[in-house]
Structures are given as C-alpha cells and as structure tokens.
Amino acid sequence: MINGERTIARPLRWGMVGGGRTGQVGYKHRTGALRDGTYQLLAGAFDLDAARGRDFGTRLGVAEDRCYATYQELIAGETAREDGVEVVSIATPNFTHFEITKACLEAGLHVICEKPLFFTVAECDEVAALAREKGLIVGVTYGFTGHPLVHQMAAMVKKGMLGDIRIVDMQYTHGFNSGDDTGAGEAVKWRTNPATAGSTFVLGDIGTHLYYLSEVVLPHLKIDKLLCDRKAFIPTRAPLEDHATVLTHYDNGARGRLWVSSVNAGNMGSQRYRFVGSRASVEWSDAHPDQLIYEVQGEPNRTLHHGMPYLEEESLAVDRMGALHTEGLGDSWANIYLWIAQAIDAKQRGDEAFLSSHHYPGIEAGTEGVRWLENCVRSADAGAAWVDYQ
Ligand code: NAI
To answer: Residue 129: left if φ>0, alpha if ψ -120 to 50, beta else—which one?
Structure first.
C-alpha cells in the first residue's frame, strides 16, 4: 500500500511546459506529481499567453521570475541556476512534444511527456537514442494505468487464472464531438488538424490509452496483423477520424476488437476492457475503477473490490486509499508520477539494476503507442486492409 512516505532521497525539482489555466490535462499532472512529496513545482512556461501563464504560475506558488514566457526561456533560465529544475513535464498539444522533449534532453533535463508521444516512430527512436546518450529518463503519462485493479488484471493473467488469452475487447468512446466544430475551443481545433494533432484524432487521443493498458495487462501478447477502419462523421475533420474500429490478430492466435469514438452521442462510459481466456474473463472500466468483474466459466460471477486482502500482491502494493474508500484517477496519476520519479532517482544514482526491473511508462511505451498508430493509419489508408504489424 502506498501511504505518501517518500521513497526517494529528496523531492525532484520540477517544471512544467503547458498545462496552464485553460489546459485540460495540466491539473492531472499536478495532482499526480504533488501527492507524495517526490516533486516540487519550481518553474513553468505554462501557457502560450505569457501574462496569463505568469499569473497562473504565481497562484500555484511558483516564483514570478521562474514563470517563463516560452519553453526556450525556461530551459535557459533553469539550466543557468544551481537549483534549476531537473525534470520537465510537457502538457502541450501533440505537435510540440518532439521539439520540446529534444530541447529539454539536450539541456540535460529529464522529461515527462504527454501521449501520443510524437508523430513518428523515427522521432521516438531519435529521442530514445538521445536520452540514452544523455543518461536521462523520458516518462509518458498514460494516466489510467496506475489504477490498482489494472495491476490485478495483469497479475491474474500472469498467474494463468484466465487460461490462454483468446479475446481482447476494448472500447474508449464518448460523444463530446458528435456535433460539428463551429465555435470549437482550442483543444478541439488542434486535435482535428493533422498539422497539430498528427496523423490521427481519436486513435491517438484516446486509442493509445487502450493500447498501452493492454500491453500492461498482456505483456506477452504481440500483434501479428491488424485492420483499421476509420471515418470522420464530421467531414471537416477528414483526413483525421472521429471514429475507428481496429481488428487485431495476436501471435498466440488471440483475436482483438477495439472501438474508439468521440461521436458516440450521449455515451459517458469512457473506457471498457474485457480480456477473455480459455477458463475465465476479467472486465474493467475506468468509470468504475474500484471494481473488477471476474467470471469463471461454470461458476457464479464475482465482483472484486480494490484494496481487499483477496487481491494479488501486485494490486495491493499500488493501492492508496484502502478498501471501501474510493480510489480514482488522481490516485492512478499519482502512481504514474511516483514510478517515473523512482526511475529518475535510480538513473541519477546509476542504479541500472533497479531500472531493469522497474515498471513505469517510459520511452518504449511511448514508442509502441506511436508504432500502433502508424500501423492503424497504414491499414486505414489502404482501404481498411489487413496489414502485417511493423
Ligand atoms: P489544451 O489545448 O487544453 O491545453 C494546452 C495547454 O498548453 C494550454 O495551457 C496552452 O496555453 C499550453 N501551450 C500550448 N503550446 C504551448 C507552448 N508552446 N508552450 C507553453 N505552453 C503551451 O490541451 P490538452 O487537452 O490539455 O492536451 C495537452 C496534451 O495532453 C495533448 O498531447 C493531449 O493528447 C494530452 N492529453 C492527455 C491526457 C491523458 O489522460 N494522459 C488527457 C488529455 C490530454
């Protein structure tokens, strides 16, 4: 169980790029990072609007002279200080991730970046090589995979409790973009423009969460081939999609079905996962993250609750609130940030043995998400054809 005791020697000196007052995801970062005393928010280039960013930063408790107008100024200002930040989170639109990450790494700063990490696998490989050369960590905020019951599913699969995995069924949908984009805010505008979003809309925006969570639960399954069918129901969003389905063949013979959509009108279900094995199935949704449905063929169905002693050690180890009390998205983000802090701390101490067995979403996880997107787009652009996974 995690109880807030500090697990690294001292808090990491932390800065943020983006995630300003009007940003959607910034508070999730701060909720995650500031929970366990493992990060201290000391600097930021929080906003494209420099004055608003400064006002916002000072209200977060950041010194005025460390609220910068641009990320370039942040890097210059902080690297010139003895007590400058050592890790920077990037919570800006997709098209900026690559250049800001590279600039931070080149300046010797660890990075925690939003997903989808970059536009291409080639960019991911370039950054992975740079991080390796500089001895720095790149963490990726797949914020849903800190939930304790995600790790319960992974442990049950590992123990063979489901039998051989046969079916992977995943859905992340909502209806917020069911209407057209007249009068849309900034967050919708950049998401529906290939120049700022990359080669996908909902596949990258929400589908990468499904894909990464499936990697956490089923690390032994690799994709052989997939078929992706995507469509823009609102034509102005083309060539990007507001709806997609992906069929998957895995190397163990399992079959997958994935649905992402932001035009599922009225739907507030968010994410749903069902992993079916030869003996039993598990089903989990982030709408009810405290509960896991466990169905064994021929037995009464069970609902497992987070924090209960009958759960696997791997799940209990990352529980924060304890059974009976709600454990939610903020707790999941706190776990992600804690695991990345532990990775940075180990890197700084040169503890490669710790790093080799430490679980956190790093550059490989970010790269695999981008690889999945590239394969989806290749299939969709070939007319929803089956493609070998590359
Ligand atoms: P947003 O458009 O709501 O906010 C972006 C923020 O970044 C704003 O504060 C803006 O002023 C600032 N900004 C933009 N360019 C900047 C720059 N060059 N320098 C400094 N600040 C800059 O975007 P949203 O929805 O917060 O998404 C940001 C990123 O987070 C995206 O990559 C998105 O895919 C990801 N995201 C991830 C989620 C998750 O669960 N991990 C959830 C929501 C978004």
So the answer is: alpha
Per-residue model confidence as pLDDT tens digits over 255-291: 999 999 999 999 998 999 999 999 999 999 999 999 9
User: 307 vs 37, 56, 205, 316, 390, CA distance in Å?
Assistant: 23, 37, 30, 6, 39
Predicted pLDDT of residue 269: 85
Stated pTM of the model: 0.97
Centroid of ligand 1 to alpha carbon of 94 (angstroms): 8
Residue from 124, 127, 123, 94 nearest 199 by CA: 94
Of all protein residues, whose CA lies closest to atom 7 belonging to ligand 1?
Answer: 18
Closest CA to ligand 1's atom 4: 23
Q: Find out whether the beta carbon of 186 lies less than 6 Å from any atom of ligand 1.
A: yes
Tell me if 189 CB under 6 Å of ligand 1: no
Cα–Cα distance for residue pair 354/347, rounded to 1 Å = 9
Report whether residue 329 contacts ligand 1, using a CB cutoff of 6 Å. no
Mean pLDDT taken over the chain:
98
Q: Taking Cα atoms as reference points, which of 95, 96, 45 lies closest to residue 75?
A: 45
> What ipTM was estimated for this complex?
0.99
Delimit the CATH 3.30.360.10 region(s) of the chain: 148-322+369-388
- Architecture per CATH, domain 12-144+336-360, reads as 3-Layer(aba) Sandwich (3.40)
The class of domain 148-322+369-388 in CATH terms is: alpha beta
Pocket test for ligand 1, best of 29, 48, 112, 193 (most atoms within 8 A of CB): 48
* 203-219 residue pLDDT tens: 999 999 999 999 999 99
Distance 142 CA to ligand 1 centre (A): 14
- Token pair in block for residue 84: 């400058």
Q: What is the pLDDT of residues 184-201, one digit of tens each?
A: 999 999 999 999 999 999
Q: Pocket of ligand 1, candidates 16, 25, 206: which has the most ligand atoms within 8 Å of its Cβ, to mutate?
A: 25
Residue 15, ligand 1, Cβ within 6 A = no
For the chain, how big is the Rg over CA atoms in Å?
Answer: 21
**Ligand 1 pocket, mutate which of 16, 92, 142, 192 (most atoms under 8 A from CB):** 92
